[in-house]
């Protein structure tokens, strides 16, 4: 197994949209006008959003925030993600997906890359949205505390 996690993205106008909302890929391979493959280094965090519709409307809305895994690490399988990733957040249903995207926007509004936010924050968002509670917003102070913990190896 490689230390890269690959994500296959597909876009078919009005039918399927698989995209990365945030994350820092180390490589990109364009297959054709509708398909490409992104690769992420072990330990990097990214958001994978999937949307599918048919003649009757939306049939799938899902967001996964994943940490790319290295060789020998445990992972959850996710369609289009090879081998899979450590799941920090996994929600489906447009209302929940839209709410998560609003939290991503709020982190970006602080001039913080969501991929650099504390992984625990994404767990917090997941736990609160799944029981219809409002998560605490991410703050600069919380981010600074995370950066300090990360530097100390905690």
Please provide a written account of the structure.
This protein is an alpha+beta fold. The chain has one domain. Helices cover 26% and strands 42% of the residues. It is built from three helices and eight strands, in the order E-E-E-E-E-E-E-E-H-H-H. Strands 1-2-5-6-8 form a five-stranded antiparallel barrel. A hairpin with a 4-residue loop joins strand 3 and strand 4 (35-41). 23% of the residues are buried. The model has no long low-confidence stretch (mean pLDDT 91).
**Count of separate DSSP helical elements:** 3
Largest sheet, if any? Answer: 5 strands, antiparallel, barrel
Low-confidence spans: pLDDT under 50, at least 5 residues?
Answer: none
Can you list the strand order of the major beta sheet?
1-2-5-6-8
Mean pLDDT, nearest integer? 91
- Total strands: the figure is 8
Query: How many domains make up the coordinates?
Result: 1
Termini Cα gap: 27 Å
* Topology as a string of helices (H) and strands (E): EEEEEEEEHHH
**Helix/strand-derived class?**
alpha+beta
Strand content: 35-45%
Estimated radius of gyration: 16 Å
Based on Cα principal axes, name the global outline: globular
Helix content: 25-40%
């Amino acid at each position: 197994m490689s230390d890269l996690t690959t994500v296959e993205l597909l876009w078919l106008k009005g039918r399927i949209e698989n995209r990365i909302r945030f994350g820092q890929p180390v490589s990109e391979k364009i297959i054709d006008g509708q398909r490409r493959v992104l690769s992420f280094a072990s330990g990097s965090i990214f958001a994978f959003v999937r949307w599918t519709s048919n003649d009757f409307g939306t049939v799938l809305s899902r967001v996964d925030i994943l940490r790319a895994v290295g060789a020998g690490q445990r992972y959850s399988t996710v369609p289009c993600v090879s081998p899979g990733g450590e799941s920090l957040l996994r929600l489906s249903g447009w209302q929940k997906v839209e709410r998560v995207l609003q939290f991503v926007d709020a982190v970006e509004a602080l001039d913080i890359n969501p991929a650099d936010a504390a992984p625990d924050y994404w767990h917090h968002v997941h736990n609160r949205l799944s029981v219809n509670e409002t998560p605490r917003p991410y703050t600069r102070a919380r981010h600074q505390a995370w950066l300090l913990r990360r530097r100390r190896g905690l």
